[in-house]
Design a protein that fits this description.
By secondary structure, this protein is mainly β. Helix content is about 0%, strand content about 55%.
């Protein structure tokens, strides 16, 4: 079931004909005001074969990550509600509404996301764990703007003008697939979004590069080459680095990535890595808070290292520089056999 305008809504509890165990339909949104906290991560998924659905909201302030996880049976969701979290597709590929009712986590919001670029639909992604498990899923992402409000511990913030990326995926995938490094970069600038997926295997060979420079004028310029110089410490944290991109239309641009602008964004708090898709019963809600000043709160020590870090970006092209912001998602393998190695600029 590919991602098209006809099926932008998450599937019903029944799912597509012939769906296998583990098949999911998920959405994700991030929302931020430049590179300043707070920023927000929101998502939900339906698992029709198992009859389950779950969702999450994660807010990162200057020193705290607040995590809300909620779950129910898929037949009880009405396809739009999981506990206090609800959503509506106002216009496919153009406008969504996200709502979180007051709850014990201290988070609440009313968000309206409106597209500012065309969506990018990735080629079907196939992952092989090296032990005969091969799974395929569809993936798409799109840049937009927000209006509405976000409330954290009773303090309400107007989010009008915030930017953010939405992400849609359908299919089956494993939590790990013998990857060395995974990146999902969403760099928002005034007139465009630089958006791509990039994976290296444990020999530092590229296995995936899929994305584009998506213009607010509707233009789409696929990314065809990538060089990277990134820094990772022994805890698998990163301060960022430099990405050099070549596009199908011949553009060459460099992104300086400052991933030390904030901390947090650890997706383990959203239930990635085993909680999502599990049986939590018909009406489950849980929440917690992580102190981001804790030196033990690092990707190596977490049960799931995938991190959506709010980052500052500087785009260099033709002697000009422009500052932007967005999400720098990364996951560095914890295998002792893997060491990240930078790659030269693309030709």
């Amino acid at each position: 079931m590919p991602l098209t305008t006809a099926v932008d809504d998450p599937v019903t509890a029944h799912g597509p004909p012939g769906a296998a165990a583990g098949w999911f339909d998920r959405f994700y949104f991030n929302a931020h005001r430049g590179a300043a906290t707070p920023y927000l991560l929101v998502g939900a998924g339906v698992y029709p074969v198992e009859g389950r659905a779950d969702g999450y909201a994660v807010a990162v302030t200057g020193a705290t990550q607040i995590n809300l996880r909620t779950a129910t049976t898929a037949t009880a969701t009405g396809n739009t509600t999981i506990g206090p979290l609800s959503w509506a597709v106002v216009e496919p590929l153009r406008e969504w509404r996200l709502r979180l009712e007051p709850n014990p986590s201290g988070l609440a919001f009313e968000l309206h996301w409106t597209a500012r670029t065309e969506p990018w639909e990735c080629r079907p992604i196939t992952l092989d764990d090296g032990r005969g498990q091969v799974m395929t899923f569809d993936h798409a992402f799109q840049s937009g703007r927000y209006r509405g409000w976000l409330e954290v511990d009773g303090r309400r913030t107007d989010v009008t003008g915030w930017t953010g990326q939405r992400d849609r995926s359908r299919g089956r995938r494993m939590a790990t697939a013998r990857q060395g490094l995974h990146l999902w970069v969403q760099a928002q600038f005034a007139d465009e979004c630089v958006a791509f997926l990039y994976d290296l295997d444990r020999s530092n060979r590229p296995t995936l590069l899929d994305g584009a420079v998506l213009g607010t004028d509707g233009s789409v310029d696929p990314i065809v080459g990538l060089g990277h110089i990134l820094a990772f410490d022994e805890c698998l944290e990163t301060t960022g680095g430099r990405l050099t991109l070549r596009t199908e239309r011949g553009r060459r641009l460099t992104l300086d990535v400052d991933a030390a602008a904030s901390r947090g964004g650890f997706l383990g708090g959203a239930g990635y890595g085993g909680w999502q898709g599990a049986d939590h019963g018909p009406a489950h809600l849980e929440h917690d808070r992580w102190d981001l000043r804790d030196p033990e709160l690092v990707p190596r020590a977490l049960h799931y290292p995938l991190t959506d870090r709010l980052a500052a970006f500087t785009r260099h092209e033709d002697g000009r520089a422009e500052r932007g912001a967005g999400i720098f998602e990364f996951a560095h393998s914890r295998s002792p056999a893997y060491r990240y190695r930078c790659a030269p600029d693309p030709r």
